[in-house]
Design goal:
Elements (H helix, E strand, L loop, with lengths): L2 H14 L6 E5 L11 E7 L17 E7 L2 E7 L10 H14 L3 E10 L9 E9 L27 H13 L4 E8 L8 H9 L4 E3 L3 H9 L4 E10 L10 H25 L1
Parallel strand pairs: 1-4, 1-5, 5-9, 6-7, 7-8
Antiparallel strand pairs: 2-3, 3-4, 5-8, 6-9
């Protein structure tokens, strides 16, 4: 990844009309309905954006959408990139750097995750308070990282405190049940074994997924305030573990998504 490549991506998007977005939004697995909320959308498909990776997962659509939401200019990623697709950390986080160069001042991230904390139930929303990186690498571990920001990035408070507070208040006001907890990021694409779920619980994870943490690390590298929420799509009880059903996971995500959209829209309104 070079500055020149990033500038070419940004230049292409600006020519398409992606002018000064204020907020970037990353949509997770099964969480694509929010795209319909955007007014006057301009769409750029990933395969047309210079140096952009391509989404290879069949339920990730692969486009960047610019438009207005709650009176603010937003740019939304419909389809994100994962390490399990064979991408490097720099590929997975490339769009975050592009959105920052386009002008975003805040970043919202969503994902579908499994509930490791058995007090949480499928269909719950969890505001991520902290995370554990179990992906075996970092999106900042490359030679010329210092060109883009500090090499050693503080992660004592990776998720923006003010925005988290606002989300909690909005959830209360809108009567949306909101959990808060620690998200563990693994590589995947296989789901966890019973022993792995037990380990995750022991080390303090409340939910587990295969994304989000690289993007959050890069947001912190770019001094970009970020929040993230998980839609909990399954319950990971190692003593009563059912075989995974991807269709059911996507169904739960789709059913819960309107609550997540409500949280994000109200947060945009308040910013």
């Amino acid at each position: 990844m070079t500055s020149k490549q990033l500038q070419e991506s940004v230049s292409y998007l600006r020519k398409k009309g992606f002018e000064n977005p204020e907020i970037g939004i990353v949509l997770g697995t099964g969480l694509g309905q929010m795209v319909d909320e955007i007014e006057s959308p301009i769409v750029a498909h990933y395969h047309n954006i210079p140096f952009f990776p391509l989404a290879t997962v069949e339920f990730h659509s692969g486009k960047l959408i610019f438009g207005t939401l709650m009176g603010k200019k937003v740019v939304m990623m419909s389809g994100r990139f994962h390490l399990y697709e064979g991408y490097a950390f720099t590929d997975v986080t490339y769009p975050i750097r592009v959105m920052r160069l386009l002008g975003i001042q805040k970043l919202f991230i969503s994902n579908a995750a499994g509930a490791v904390n058995l007090n949480f139930k499928k269909g719950d929303i969890m505001l991520i308070d902290d995370h554990i990186n179990l992906q075996g690498g970092s999106p900042l571990a490359f030679k010329n990282v210092a060109e883009f920001g500090d090499r050693f990035v503080d992660m004592s408070q990776p998720y923006d405190v003010e925005m988290k507070k606002k989300v909690v208040e909005i959830a209360k006001k809108e009567n949306i049940s909101l959990q808060q907890g620690v998200y563990a990021a693994v590589v995947g694409p296989q789901l966890e074994s019973r022993a792995e779920y037990r380990m995750l619980k022991i080390i303090g994870a409340d939910a587990v997924g295969m994304s989000t943490v690289p993007e959050v690390i890069v947001a912190n590298h770019l001094r970009l305030p970020v929040i993230a929420v998980s839609v909990l799509t399954d319950e990971c009880d190692p003593d009563n573990l059912e075989p995974v059903n991807i269709k059911e996971i996507l169904d739960v995500a789709a059913k819960t998504e309107p609550k997540m959209i409500k949280l994000f829209k109200e947060l945009i309104r308040e910013l």
